Sequence to fold (378 residues):
Amino acid sequence: MSTESPRQEFSGIRMGRPFGIPVYVSWTWFIVAAIITFMFSDQVRGQLPELSEPAVYGVAFAYAVLLYVSVLLHELAHSVLAKMYGLPVRRITLYLLGGVSEIEKEPQTPGREFMVAAVGPLVSLLLAGIGLVADLFLVDGGGIPEMMVWWLWVANLIVGVFNLLPGLPLDGGRMLRAGVWKATRSPGTGTIAAAWAGRVLGAVLIVGPLLLYWFGGQPQQELSLLWGAVLGAFIWFGATQSLRVARVRARLPQANARALARRAIPVTAETPLSEALRKAAEAHAGAMVVVDHDGRPLAIVNEAAVQATPEHRRPWVNAGSLSRALEPSMVLPADLVGESLIDAMRDAPSGEYLLVEKGGEVYGVLATADVNRVFSGV
Fold:
């Protein structure tokens, strides 16, 4: 299973950097490797009764490894093409349900979106085709090679076809998104359509096996119920996350540094907090900037620290003691809007930022809390 994803928290084992892309294996992979090894050991035992027990489990584990090598090739196809289009790829992760390529920016056009999404299933289907040809014409006589080739080409066929299903977060969902984006000229509309298709798909995967089992299912179908529930839940929650991202992106234009800026007054570090607050109230300012005696900004008075200071202590506390010294990353251009503003804030987390004009003049102070309120409720 494959998706492209924004950055996320992660822990795992780093395996290498093919094409300059870091590849990690999540600890959850060992869970699925153990499950695959256990499930396929019976088939190995049945087809190759001459093998010893350690060899049986060794062959089954080798299949688990080769299956995830196929998943890695699928993800590399996404990531390499994304890099060719100039999109940064943070890493590839192999985990419980397959793999994920963390592509940190959206493709610039629906055509590129379609190609980046389609190339993964295409590689899986190509691997399936190569395996089928090898199974028919190159490998015969039974034994481990023929059994392994047959398993792998069937698995790649399933992976390729499954990922073409039209619903986010699957590759087919991204292809659907690209088509709706092209038709409506709105990437947000494309995301919403593909995400709702993903929700429907997830519901079908959960409810469908339940209905089949209810109307005369066999006991051996219990495993299908489990996998249907796991995959359906994964797709449902992935589609729901895509809807949330679409709502966030719809509000990005409202993240305008100038529009959200608070008027700021200059104060010296020695100014008592009560006096600084009085001046701010008179000027209808929502922020205070500590300056030197030449008027150069040195720090921003922290709003949270001010609110935490009891009123009776404010005449005895100076403004400088409640300020955070300005670092270069805390000084932002006043004309930042949308994703550019969010990226700048993400790169240098802070409660407040100093906004300046192109000539260096202070425009105001941007509070992170004000930006967060733009996205509240999504």
